[in-house]
């Protein structure tokens, strides 16, 4: 773990971001943000394991993708349930043509921080936004991109909505975006040496909005970069934590950790 006035942690292996500013009304406290594609929270054991990771890393806020929980028709857009030490806010997963539950984004919030949560909203099936009181305010976006083989309309629609969401957020606030972007980006300290289609779209989004991909900022061994292991054992870095460039001097470290295997996910916490 890193040390500093404040720390933000990101998700599929843990991304650590440190800031000396006052966040979430907790001056000089360590604030940890996480990011994880959990690949299902449908079982009690998976929710217990997620809660264990949140406790082990003292995660204040965690961005979640692929919880695969479909809400009932009478449920609100955001459903709230307890994980134990944290509360999870989910927007509904959807069902594919075979009737299987797919997708679903969520945000977990440490129970002690709930009084600071001013709003949480579903933007669409792939994007959620939470806003916290503080000096400055903290905006957290959890998102889940279509895959690199998805049709152009799906991926273009995703980035249009994400761009519109970010454009609506004031420039002076702390913005943290945690997501499974299904993207390979070629950067000096990234896992990949080539950029795929989704990676180019992510790079365009980052450049357009003056953002940084925090887990490509630091020279790390490859073991601290990859975030996903495919069924054929292919390793890739597709999960990222993004912040605005104005926070660059506050970001001291960012990397991934091998902690999510017990959940049954092939992703790792950033």
Automatic annotation (TrEMBL):
Give an example GO molecular function.
catalytic activity
Record InterPro entries: Endo/exonu/phosph_ase_sf, Endo/exonuclease/phosphatase, Swc5/CFDP1/2
SUPFAM superfamilies documented for this protein: DNase I-like
Q: Which Pfam families match?
A: Exo_endo_phos_2
Provide the Endonuclease/exonuclease/phosphatase domain boundaries: 139-270
Signal peptide (residue range) = none
PANTHER family attached to this UniProt entry: BUCENTAUR RELATED, CRANIOFACIAL DEVELOPMENT PROTEIN 2
- Report what the protein is called: Endonuclease/exonuclease/phosphatase domain-containing protein
Species this protein is from: Patiria miniata (Bat star)
């Amino acid at each position: 773990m890193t040390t500093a006035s404040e720390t933000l942690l990101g998700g599929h292996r843990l991304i650590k971001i440190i800031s000396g500013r006052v966040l979430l009304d907790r001056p000089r406290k360590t604030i940890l943000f996480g990011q994880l594609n959990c690949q299902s929270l449908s079982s009690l054991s998976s929710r217990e394991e997620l809660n264990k990771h949140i406790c082990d890393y003292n995660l204040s806020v965690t961005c979640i993708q692929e919880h695969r929980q479909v809400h009932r028709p009478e449920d609100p857009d955001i459903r709230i349930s307890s994980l134990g030490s944290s509360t999870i806010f989910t927007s509904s997963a959807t069902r594919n043509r075979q009737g299987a539950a797919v997708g679903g984004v969520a945000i977990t919030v440490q129970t002690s921080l709930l009084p600071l949560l001013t709003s949480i909203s579903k933007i669409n099936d792939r994007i959620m936004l939470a806003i916290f009181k503080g000096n400055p305010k903290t905006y957290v976006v959890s998102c889940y991109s279509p895959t690199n083989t998805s049709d152009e309309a799906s991926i273009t629609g995703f980035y249009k909505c994400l761009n519109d969401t970010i454009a609506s957020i004031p420039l002076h606030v702390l913005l943290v975006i945690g997501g499974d972007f299904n993207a390979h980006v070629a950067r000096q300290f990234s896992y990949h040496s080539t950029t795929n289609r989704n990676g180019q779209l992510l790079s365009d989004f980052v450049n357009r909005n003056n953002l940084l991909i925090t887990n490509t900022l630091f020279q790390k061994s490859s073991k601290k970069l990859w975030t996903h292991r495919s069924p054929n054992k292919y390793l890739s870095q597709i999960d990222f934590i993004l912040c605005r460039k104005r926070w660059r001097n506050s970001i001291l470290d960012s990397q991934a950790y091998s902690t999510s295997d017990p959940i049954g996910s092939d992703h790792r916490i950033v």
